[in-house]
């Protein structure tokens, strides 16, 4: 088969898909009776136009980098981990135990402990689905969906019966110890002498997310294990002839995936809420699917796609404020359309583009 | 536990399992034809919204139901185009449909009615009301049979009975008609069906459309039968629970009924009792009851209690040989 030029595959096709998704979203806005260009302007202005907006955008981006990487690592092994939501919830439990149980003297000590706990709990929640897929062939999509629902129930149970301080009504934990407070954008940039507004929740977890991108890239493209994961994803039979154990790859890739999803809690639970809330994930696990699809399961792509969705989430909040008839749910629609066009309807764009380039090559 | 409590529990079991049953049978047609559908949830939700919205606007529950079914079928068509025509990933398409439905219903709902994404409360002809079966009031005073017949079996909305009738109908269609044979074949071995000169594409589209129709009925029941109007995200995971029931039932119509009734009963118990004392075990928290359908499905999937084997060609786009 003729190969496409690389830039077409990694840039042009995702770009066309995104444009299509935004066009259809624009039609929806038009149908509601607002001007889509005006809406777009509010989104960009609200998310990038001020330090305040940017702080929120980067906070959401951090969440989506973790969940996006989680889905992407699993995609490399051709596993569809739809359970990021539950794994991130459980990651929150791990982080909360660390931040409530130890009286941390300094956040530099608390952060590594929280990272380990979040990753362990996230990975733990993907353990059973991974094992069932690897040993019993139970479909990972179905089992991870089920584990999301079990996680919601478990979360309510844990908060009401264990984390909630006696006498409180709201199902949430006590505030974390002061020593586990992560420096916010305001504090961290203040050390550099940069004045950044106080309220945006962006914090040092953003740096952790960037490091995670680099580590995932190293893992997938620069290690023996990464090679085995990619080989398994491309062809299970070829990989098994080469002596790669399918059990090992499924287990390892799903555990890493769950760990990455669990890390999201470092940002949302430890960095922002500073207590364990009933829904600390708020759909970010699912946004990870859109992010991984848009980013072609590559860490750099995931980072860019996470930034795009961070921008949409922050801009969407502003949108609701400025144009009351376009509610927050517009973002969910855009998200659905991005998943539809970049994931499910990918061939609709890919086949004509491929034909065009093949014909052009033949013409030369 | 006296008879009255048992009858009340079973009565709410029937009501709660009806939407599961519609969605479960919908998934059954689709997956038997080789199309995975994790977008059942989205279709239920879309139909719930449009049936409640049109019932509120026109005052007729039947027009509402027609609108709900139309919305659900349209989403099913998107799924069909993505997964049959463009041979895309069926799971991803399902995820996309769930998001589209969740976002669009809340967005349009707020835009049309301006009451926080809800529809106005429905009453009278804009709702499906309970139907009294013949002799229900005459038999009401007879001991045992009276409450069982008049309170449990009679007095549901028409859609509950439609759902129950859909079970034998589905069995008959799948296992006793030529269409059903072909439908099952296309989910197991599409090459054979193709070789026989029958269009795989056409059969799979038909299955997808039936799936849309049934989800439409389920959604209409949710918003205009069980509840009196639409609220945001009211399907609340029922589409996924139906998916669990489908696996639990090993893709068979009769078992699907039992699975949905079981899950409905668990839900009914969880609603009625906050925690349950079981001798020797201690207190079972209500959250455990809510999670039990999913836990049971995992156990079934693990293959400890009889193995659930999905249709062989499920999830694989069909490519004609060239």
Structure explained in plain terms:
Chain A has 364 residues and is mostly helical. Chain A has a domain at 61-306: ABC transporter involved in vitamin B12 uptake, BtuC (Orthogonal Bundle), CATH 1.10.3470. Helices cover 76% and strands 0% of the residues of chain A. Chain A has helices at 6-32, 36-48, 51-76, 84-101, 107-136, 140-163, 185-191, 205-222, 224-234, 236-241, 246-273, 284-294, 299-322, 329-344, 346-363. In chain A, helix 13 (299-322) packs antiparallel against helix 14 (329-344). Chain A is globular, with a radius of gyration of 21 Å. The two termini of chain A are 17 Å apart. In chain A, 52% of the residues are buried. The model of chain B has no long low-confidence stretch (mean pLDDT 90). In chain B, helix 2 runs parallel beside helix 4. Chain B has one domain. A two-stranded antiparallel sheet of chain B has the order 1-2. Chain B contains 13 helices and two strands, in the order H-H-H-H-H-H-H-H-H-H-H-H-E-E-H. The N and C termini of chain B lie far apart (66 Å). Chain B has helices at residues 3-32, 40-58, 61-85, 90-113, 136-139, 145-153, 158-176, 178-188, 190-195, 200-226, 238-248, 253-272, 286-302, and strands spanning 275-278, 282-285. In chain B, strand 1 and strand 2 (282-285) form a beta hairpin. Chain B is mainly alpha-helical. At the A-B interface, helix 5, helix 6, helix 12, helix 14 and helix 15 of A face helix 3, helix 4, helix 11 and helix 13 of B.
Produce a short descriptive summary.
The complex is a heterodimer of chains A (about 375) and B (about 325). Chain A is an all-alpha fold and about 375 residues long.
List the helices and strands and how they pair.
The complex is a heterodimer of chains A (364) and B (322).
Chain A: H1 6-32, H2 36-48, H3 51-76, H4 84-101, H5 107-136, H6 140-163, H7 185-191, H8 205-222, H9 224-234, H10 236-241, H11 246-273, H12 284-294, H13 299-322, H14 329-344, H15 346-363
Chain B: H1 3-32, H2 40-58, H3 61-85, H4 90-113, H5 136-139, H6 145-153, H7 158-176, H8 178-188, H9 190-195, H10 200-226, H11 238-248, H12 253-272, E1 275-278, E2 282-285, H13 286-302
Antiparallel strand pairs in B: 1-2
Helix pairs in contact in B: 1-6, 1-7, 1-10, 1-11, 1-12, 2-3, 2-4, 2-10, 2-11, 3-4, 3-10, 7-8, 7-12, 8-10, 11-12, 11-13, 12-13
């Amino acid at each position: 088969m003729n190969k496409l030029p690389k830039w077409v595959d990694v840039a042009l096709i995702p770009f066309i898909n995104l444009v299509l998704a935004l066009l259809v979203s624009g039609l929806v806005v038009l149908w509601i009776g607002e001007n889509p260009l005006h809406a777009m302007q509010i989104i960009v202005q609200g998310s990038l136009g001020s330090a305040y907006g940017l702080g929120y955008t980067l906070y959401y981006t951090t969440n989506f980098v973790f969940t996006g990487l989680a889905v992407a690592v699993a995609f490399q092994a051709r596993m569809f981990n739809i359970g990021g939501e539950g794994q991130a919830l459980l990651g929150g439990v791990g982080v909360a135990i660390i931040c409530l149980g130890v009286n941390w003297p300094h956040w530099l000590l608390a952060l590594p402990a929280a990272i380990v706990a979040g990753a362990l709990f996230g990975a733990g929640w993907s353990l059973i689905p991974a094992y069932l897929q690897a040993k019993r062939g139970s479909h990972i999509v179905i089992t991870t969906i089920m584990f999301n629902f079990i996680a919601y129930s478990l979360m309510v149970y844990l908060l009401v019966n264990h984390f909630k301080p006696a006498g409180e009504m709201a199902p949430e934990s006590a505030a974390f110890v002061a020593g586990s407070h992560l420096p916010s954008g305001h504090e961290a940039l203040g050390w550099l002498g940069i004045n950044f507004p106080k309220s945006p929740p962006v914090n040092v977890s953003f740096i952790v997310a960037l490091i995670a991108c680099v580590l995932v890239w190293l893992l997938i493209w620069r290690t023996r294990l990464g090679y085995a994961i990619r080989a398994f994803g491309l062809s299970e039979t070829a990989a098994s002839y080469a002596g790669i154990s399918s059990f090992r790859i499924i287990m390892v890739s799903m555990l890493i995936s769950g760990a990455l999803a669990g890390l999201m809690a470092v940002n949302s639970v430890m960095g922002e809420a500073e207590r364990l809330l009933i829904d600390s994930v708020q759909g970010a696990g699912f946004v990870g699917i859109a992010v991984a699809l848009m980013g072609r399961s590559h860490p750099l792509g995931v980072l860019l796609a996470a930034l795009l969705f961070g921008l949409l989430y922050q801009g969407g909040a502003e949108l609701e404020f400025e144009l009351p008839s376009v509610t927050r749910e517009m973002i969910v629609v855009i998200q659905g359309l991005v998943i539809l066009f970049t994931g499910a309807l990918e061939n609709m764009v890919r086949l004509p583009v491929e034909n065009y380039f093949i014909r052009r090559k033949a013409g030369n | 536990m006296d008879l009255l409590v048992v009858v009340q529990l079973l009565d709410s079991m029937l009501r709660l399992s009806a939407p599961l049953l519609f969605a479960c049978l919908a998934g059954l047609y689709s997956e038997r034809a080789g199309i995975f559908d994790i977008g059942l949830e989205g279709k239920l939700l879309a139909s719930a919204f449009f049936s409640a919205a049109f019932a509120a606007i026109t005052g007729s529950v039947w027009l509402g139901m027609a609108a709900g079914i139309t919305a659900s079928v349209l989403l099913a068509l998107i799924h069909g185009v993505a997964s049959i025509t463009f041979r895309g990933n069926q799971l991803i398409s399902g995820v996309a449909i769930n998001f589209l439905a969740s976002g669009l219903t809340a967005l349009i709902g707020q835009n049309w009615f301006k009451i926080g994404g809800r529809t106005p409360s429905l009453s009278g002809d804009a709702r499906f009301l309970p139907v009294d079966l013949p002799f229900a009031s005459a038999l009401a005073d007879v001991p045992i049979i009276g409450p069982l017949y008049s309170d449990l079996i009679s007095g549901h909305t028409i859609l509950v009975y439609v759902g129950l009738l859909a079970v034998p109908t589905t069995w008959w269609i799948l296992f006793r008609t030529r269409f059903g044979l072909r439908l099952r074949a296309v989910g197991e071995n599409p090459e054979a069906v193709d070789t026989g000169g029958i269009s795989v594409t056409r059969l799979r589209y038909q299955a997808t459309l039936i799936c849309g129709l049934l989800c439409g009925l389920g959604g209409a029941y949710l918003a205009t039968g069980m509840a009196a109007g639409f609220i945001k995200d009211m399907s609340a995971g029922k589409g996924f629970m139906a998916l669990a029931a489908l696996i639990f039932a090993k893709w068979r119509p009769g078992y699907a009924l039992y699975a949905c009734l079981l899950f409905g009963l668990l839900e009914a118990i969880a609603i009625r009792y906050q925690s349950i004392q079981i001798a020797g075990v201690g207190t079972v928290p209500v959250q455990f009851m809510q999670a039990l359908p999913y836990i049971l499905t995992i156990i079934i999937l693990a293959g400890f209690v009889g193995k659930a084997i999905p249709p062989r060609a499920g999830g694989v786009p069909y490519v004609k040989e060239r």
